[in-house]
Specification:
heterodimer; A: about 280 residues; mainly alpha; MetI-like fold; two-stranded antiparallel ribbon; about 70% helix; B: about 350 residues; alpha+beta; Rossmann fold; OB fold (Dihydrolipoamide Acetyltransferase, E2P); 2 domains; 6-stranded mixed sheet; 21 strands; binds adenosine-5'-diphosphate; binds magnesium ion
Chain lengths: ~280, ~350
């Protein structure tokens, strides 16, 4: 009896949470499928007529495609770069004697302590004035954005991956070295596969960070390197907001994130290191 | 021929001196055991040979070549770790084949070697499993197979049996010895268990506090200890010690008088083994009172209080003296050892 009741209450709680999570998204999709005139009538949860015009409007805008590609490139490069540097850095911090190891960690972490907005002017000056070679600056470049996001994501990646690598027994490295492996082979054949769950988490969180980031993207890009989040904001204008098109663009912006999550999520398998050494 | 040579190798960490100028020659095909209490520098010695640790000073030679500054991968040594260190993300087959994969052997060529190594340690049925699906003994076999898959010039084993239960330990001990005889690979084996050392070794190195105390065959070490440490470490029960003094060739202590002591007069510790003593009918060389009686099944160990010393004697299993009774023993003169109490060194005739 009790276990049945427990199952039912669990079911109800999860259903409730799922609805709370999904309702805004459903609402967004709903808005994207309505005409402007229908939006301000009686709100209803069931679409009466499906209208694709908003999607057509957004897709016809060549900026949407460009910015989408920019976002994909920036988010993916950022995730790859952060995972690579994070793994190498975390390995060094975990395995090598480094002078001031604990301070390195604290120092990288301070980069995340202040709100990004606090650094906005500094970044803007760096991007326009300081890092200038002739006419070339980092303003409005994808690489500029990728590097800035690394500054924000690396501390987290280092922290997470160091924890993971600390959990991989050092004897495994040593066994591999005696078995003939070089340092790179140890990293590639032993550490990397065992740190995969941590790398997957890092990849997801850094990718999503870069995909969603608005403030820095809006400030440090102009026309060429703009990302999709800045595009979404453009629907809000002084003459009014194009809700339908905005919802359509937002829905399409959500899709790559969902696909990316689905791809990476299955690598998050915990407890893989069990059985390496006898506890 | 010398396979592994250490030339006054020392290792110092910030505070601790782990090894003090160790000199060691390991012969080709020999089974050498490093024996000593925990913390005496056995693992450090082995790790320096493997290249996992660098020596603070001194030289390491493998097959006559100076490898002191070579990384582990250029040394062709194989090592079995105390906690096995199997790669958890690889199957048994991949674990065993790992050294070959790293050496660039192609997959089809690896298979035959892997099967041969797996066969030697009786693992053929488990090749598809992962380490976490194996028992402790099976994991140990995988570690052995991984070590012998590529014909290493030296085999290093650091307390490989200490994580196994007592019964399995005895079985694996025999297997390791058999395997080593079969392969004829130079083997260095670390243990703190003197029974393991005695049963496995061609020669034993007894270590204490980073220093070699004695090197010799198990018989040498047991019968002809160089100092008090070795005599007290080897044997179960360990050698009995009676502190006293020698005057004009006679050793004397409370309840003990032994003629024919070698060396000068002075403080001397007399040593003898439990099984070398014979129960004396009336008065004996050593007299005292029964302190405790410990039947072991095949014999009776009698702990005797002799003045301020205590000694253990081995008697027939039917001998059951009463606690507190006076008792006396004789030890044949050839089985008595004398040590300088101050230095701990053996005094020979
Ligand atoms: N990485 C290290 N840093 C500092 N001291 C160490 C380290 N490894 C071992 N030691 C010290 O060196 C001594 C010898 O250690 P070890 O060779 O592991 O002993 P054993 O294997 O004989 O038990 C010990 O006192 C130990 O505390
Ligand atoms: Mg040790």
């Amino acid at each position: 009896m009790d276990s049945t009741r427990g199952r039912w209450s669990g079911f109800i709680i999860w259903t409730g949470l799922t609805i709370v999570t999904l309702l805004p998204i459903y609402w967004m999709v709903l808005v994207s499928l309505r005409r402007r005139v229908d939006l301000f009538g009686n709100p209803s949860l069931i679409p009466d007529r499906i209208f694709w015009g908003n999607y057509a409007e957004v897709l016809a805008d060549d900026r949407f495609q460009r910015f989408m590609i920019n976002s994909l490139i920036v988010a993916t490069s950022n995730a790859v770069l952060v995972c690579t540097l994070g793994l190498l850095g975390a390995y060094a911090m975990s395995r090598f004697k480094l002078t001031g190891k604990n301070n390195i960690f604290f120092w990288t972490l301070t980069n995340r302590m202040a709100p990004p907005a606090a650094f906005l002017i500094a970044y803007f000056l760096l991007f326009t004035v300081v890092f200038r070679v002739g006419d070339v600056t980092m303003l409005d470049t994808r690489i500029g954005l990728i590097l800035v996001y690394c500054v924000f994501n690396l501390p987290f990646a280092l922290w997470l991956l160091q924890g993971i690598i600390d959990g991989i027994p050092k004897e495994l490295d040593e066994a591999a070295m005696v078995d003939g492996a070089s340092l790179w082979q140890v990293l590639w054949t032993v550490i990397l596969p065992l740190a995969k769950p941590g790398l997957a988490v890092t990849a997801i969180l850094t990718w999503v960070f870069a995909w969603n980031e608005y403030l820095l993207a809006a400030t440090l890009t102009r026309t060429e390197a703009r990302t999709i989040t800045t595009f979404l904001a453009e629907f809000v204008t002084v003459t009014g907001t194009n809700w339908g098109a905005m919802a359509a663009a937002a829905t399409m912006t959500l899709l790559p994130a969902v696909i990316f999550l689905a791809l990476v999520q299955r690598h998050i398998v915990a407890g893989l290191t069990f059985g390496a050494v006898k506890e | 021929m010398v396979s592994v040579a250490l030339r006054s190798v020392s290792k110092v960490w910030d505070e601790t001196v782990a090894l003090k100028a160790l000199d060691l020659d390991v012969h080709e095909g020999e089974f050498l055991v490093l024996l000593g209490p925990s913390g005496c520098g056995k693992s450090t010695t082995m790790r320096i040979i493997a290249g996992l640790e660098s020596a603070t000073s001194g030289q390491v030679l493998l097959d006559g070549q100076d490898v002191t500054n070579q990384p582990p991968r250029d040394r062709n040594v194989a090592m079995v770790f105390q906690n096995y260190a199997l790669y958890p993300h690889m199957t048994v087959e991949e674990n065993i084949g790992y050294p070959l994969r790293i050496a660039g052997v192609r997959k089809p060529d690896r298979a035959a070697h892997i099967r041969k190594a797996a066969e030697r340690v009786d693992l053929l049925d488990l090749l598809r499993r992962r380490p976490k699906q194996l028992s402790g003994g099976q994991r140990q076999r995988v570690a052995l197979a991984r070590a012998l898959v590529r014909d290493p010039s030296v085999f290093l084993l650091d307390e490989p049996l200490s994580n196994l239960d007592a019964k399995l330990r005895v079985a694996m001990r025999a297997e390791i010895k058999h395997l080593q005889r079969q392969l004829g690979v130079t083997t260095i084996y670390v243990t703190h268990d003197q029974i393991e050392a005695m049963t496995l070794a061609d020669r034993v190195v007894v270590m204490n506090k980073g220093e070699m105390q004695q090197i010799g065959t198990p018989d040498d070490i047991y019968d002809d200890a160089e100092n008090l440490f070795v005599a007290g470490f080897i044997g179960s029960p360990p050698m009995n010690f009676i502190e006293g003094a020698v005057e004009a060739g006679t050793f004397a202590s409370d309840g003990v008088r032994v003629q024919g002591a070698p060396g000068h007069d002075g403080s001397v510790t007399l040593g003898f083994r439990a099984e070398d003593a014979r129960l004396a009918d009336g008065t004996g060389m050593i007299a005292g009172h029964v302190f405790d009686v410990e039947p072991t099944g095949d014999a009776t160990l009698i702990v005797v209080q002799i003045g301020s010393n205590r000694a253990t004697f081995r008697a027939d299993k039917r001998t059951r003296p009463t606690i507190g009774d006076p008792i006396a023993f004789d030890v044949p003169p050839g089985e008595v050892r004398y040590f300088d109490t101050a230095t701990g060194q053996r005094i020979r005739a």
